[in-house]
Amino acid sequence: MSKLTLKHRYLSALLILSLLLTLALSGCGTANQNTPAPDKSAGTASARQSTYPLTIKDDSGTEVTLPAEPKRIVSFVPSSTETLFALGLDGKVAAVTKYDDYPQGVQQKVEYVFEDSLHPNTEQILKLNPDLIILGMHDEKTIQSIRNLKIPVVIFNPQNLDSTYQTIEKFGQITNKQEQAKKLVSDMKAKEQAITQKVATIKEADRLKVFVEVDPNLFTPGKGTFLDQLVTMAGGINIAGDVNDWAQYSSEQVISKNPQVIFDTYSYYQKDAKEGILSRQGWQNIEAVKNKRVIDLDSDMVTRPGPRIVDGLESIAKALYPDLFK
């Protein structure tokens, strides 16, 4: 089986897990599940140095205490790995997964690469002697088995830009890189503001209708998803904004809503994704198809909630309104 097919199966598994988690959380009150409450125990984000023992609250609501500054980190989340490297922690990341591909050559810079990132081998984790393990959208059984190793485990799974910024700042607190995290977030927010200021000049009547296709079966991000937020911030109108979370649209729905731009996010494993959409039976009269405005997005840049997510926002805005970014 090819590496691309495996990656696709991995991402499909994460999508299913995300849907299940969303359904599980939907009945848990009216609080915003995606934006963690401020963590008073970890001190202020403006502090120059972290002090240990350090207690932080992760996205699972668990309070985790780190006895000392982490020196050996195992990351099972590609976006978290990107954040660690962006904070200058190259020499402290001991292991990643085979899906971690950024920054370039990251797998050659660590001691071990886990083949199974959803259900990693706990014996191999112990052999690496880590003092911090990072998890994300893992099932509860896996989380508990890793926590049973009595090694500090943090779980982060940001679902919007604000919680992504908060997560980066928490990584700064955890790793004693608060100033670097503060600077990284500041730069990301500045870029976000520059993008949104440009698209703010577009009149509401001129905003383009968008369909985002995450696989050939017409699964698409609805209202409340990260991709919906990015499309909206980039000045687009998500035609799937009438549904919550992830949904499977029908061909008839797409045709009736007639998007002016279609984005696909799966060209990394299906190279002819764009051509497949342009030649799809019955879609010849959709504006995006007629005008050949079917665009491949870099899946990693628009789905990984890490330092490059604002670059993903920019790629969407540039694709929608290229004249604004000349």
Question: Could you characterize the architecture of this molecule?
Answer:
The protein has helices at residues 3-25, 78-86, 122-128, 140-147, 161-175, 178-199, 226-233, 251-257, 273-278, 287-290, 299-303, 309-320, and strands spanning 54-57, 63-66, 73-75, 93-97, 112-114, 132-135, 153-155, 209-213, 219-221, 237-238, 246-248, 261-264, 294-296. It has 326 residues and is an alpha/beta fold. It folds into two domains: 34-185, Rossmann fold; 201-325, Nitrogenase molybdenum iron protein domain (Rossmann fold). Strands 5-4-3-6-7 form a five-stranded parallel sheet, sandwiched between helices. It has a four-stranded parallel sheet with strand order 10-8-12-13. Strands 1-2 form a two-stranded antiparallel ribbon. Helix 4 (140-147) links the parallel strand 6 and strand 7. Helix 5 runs antiparallel to helix 6 and helix 6 (178-199) runs parallel beside helix 12. The longest helix is centred in the first third of the chain and has 23 residues, at 3-25. The radius of gyration is 20 Å and the shape is globular. The protein starts with a helix and ends in a 6-residue tail after the last helix. Mean pLDDT is 89; it is low at 1-46.
What's the layout of helices and strands?
Elements: H1 3-25, E1 54-57, E2 63-66, E3 73-75, H2 78-86, E4 93-97, E5 112-114, H3 122-128, E6 132-135, H4 140-147, E7 153-155, H5 161-175, H6 178-199, E8 209-213, E9 219-221, H7 226-233, E10 237-238, E11 246-248, H8 251-257, E12 261-264, H9 273-278, H10 287-290, E13 294-296, H11 299-303, H12 309-320
Parallel strand pairs: 3-4, 3-6, 4-5, 6-7, 8-10, 8-12, 12-13
Antiparallel strand pairs: 1-2, 9-11
